User: Fold these one by one.
Assistant:
Number 1:
Amino acid sequence: MTRTDLRGIRTTPRRKVLISGASVAGPALAFWLNRYGFAVTVVEKAAALRGGGYPIDVRGTALEVVRRMGILPRLQDAHIDLRRLTFLDGDGSEVASVDPHTVTGGVAGRDLEVRRGDLTGALYTAVRDDVEFLFNDSIDSLDQSGHGVDVTFRGGGRRTFDMVFGADGLHSCTREFLFGPEEQFHRYLGYCFAGFTMRNTFGLFRETTMWNTPGRAAALYAVGDNDDVHAFLNFACPEPPFDAFRNPEAQRDLVAAVFADAGWEVPGMLAAMRDADDLFFDGVSQIRMPRWSSGRVALVGDAAYAPSFLTGQGSSLALVGAYMLAGSLADRDHAAGFADYEHNTRAFVTVNQDQVGEGDATLFPTTARALEQRNDMLRDLSAMPSAEGRPAHSALTLPEFMPMT
Ligand SMILES: Cc1cc2nc3c(=O)[nH]c(=O)nc-3n(C[C@H](O)[C@H](O)[C@H](O)COP(=O)(O)OP(=O)(O)OC[C@H]3O[C@@H](n4cnc5c(N)ncnc54)[C@H](O)[C@@H]3O)c2cc1C
């Protein structure tokens, strides 16, 4: 890999890489690969960085990743600091009001909860001057038969890269190119959810209110500094609605039908969902794969190991995975680097994915009896101090990686 330049100095040509997806895993991977001397291109199918989604958590090992990236202060400024989580029963009366950390396993004063767009914005700002971004485009085909990866783009371009990375989320196309249909790796956990923003006409401030009946939850997250709330509708759905995943109108119809007779603020939430321009709908699912790479192409974040929002660890796994993948390639070729990435990251991923099992969503019980048991647990919790954090969140100590000289 080493060459001699015109002055007789030995240099290493920059390895060219392509990352598909500009959300959390993609820009984080771009940041570290650029740091290690790679020439990085990111392709994102959306026309611009996508906002939306309800607030996400950055905890444990992932906090150290964002500290090393230099964006921790910015994220601390964006920290939402939700002070209260109130549960309501079907008629809207209060069941319990608790410190949010007692339920999420987060640590007050250390872990971060930020709007998803604030995290992606911070990551993008940290790399946009050093990395090429291609918005409104995506990979059409990948061919690894030569000495690199020949890529054609939907927009008509054709280029060759030394490596390609799929950071394109739960329904990753890169994964499908490499390993075939999603169904083989998709572990559906029995729920679907819709998230969108709407006007805060509820007088809520830095708090979450969640209404439940068996198999249904409606929540309003008020982050405090503007007139919007993040609305969230989660429901049990025994089979994944694959048709709805591809069709926003079918998503709206499905959610409206499931919540048609619901009380509390749900009718207003359904009306707001119809007009929302940032609706995000998905199944509550994990991705579990025996391998995360094939040849010169590797997967990172939800594309490789989505843990589901029930763990609250999707963004943290994406950040840690990106750090480990880039670092593993800093001073070695793709074959050795990809093997190290898996070897050193898989245990952390698995212990976090194992935080939930099928039908084991404590906050979203599907029967009246399970809901009553959950409510009893919450009443006990309301007297408890904030949690210490879950060991899984910090189950990996980040190595230091050295770039190739
Ligand atoms: C708009 C949005 C809202 C979200 N809201 C929530 C939420 O409310 N709750 C929750 O638990 N999780 C949500 N997520 C998922 C959450 O961001 C991830 O679980 C986590 O942050 C891991 O990030 P990731 O980068 O691996 O994947 P993602 O955040 O899913 O990002 C994947 C990126 O790849 C892009 N992409 C997809 N296919 C292609 C393609 N073929 N070519 C190019 N680009 C492609 C997507 O547009 C997206 O920017 C949301 C994701 C998005 C994109």
Number 2:
Amino acid sequence: MAFQDRTLTCRDCGAEFVFTSGEQEFYAQKGFEHEPTRCPQCRRARKRDRSSSSGDRTMFDAVCSQCGAATQVPFSPRPDKPVYCQDCYRAVAGRRAR
Ligand SMILES: [Zn+2]
Ligand SMILES: [Zn+2]
């Protein structure tokens, strides 16, 4: 069965994009039943969003070793490691960079 280029409309930005015969073949080989609903740009943007905000990152409650403020850190706080709130972290990291 031969595939033919098809023009689809992106559901995010409304732009038209070409679902090429090569892509259709790829989709068919992978067993994807749905055609793409977004243009390549929006697909890439969404992928970037997902990896940067990595949705289910667990945050742990911690107390800043510097100023004693309650804060949250993306790792389990350990008693032998200092934990900083965002402000102090920035100050500490800034000092280290210089
Ligand atoms: Zn789009
Ligand atoms: Zn602090």
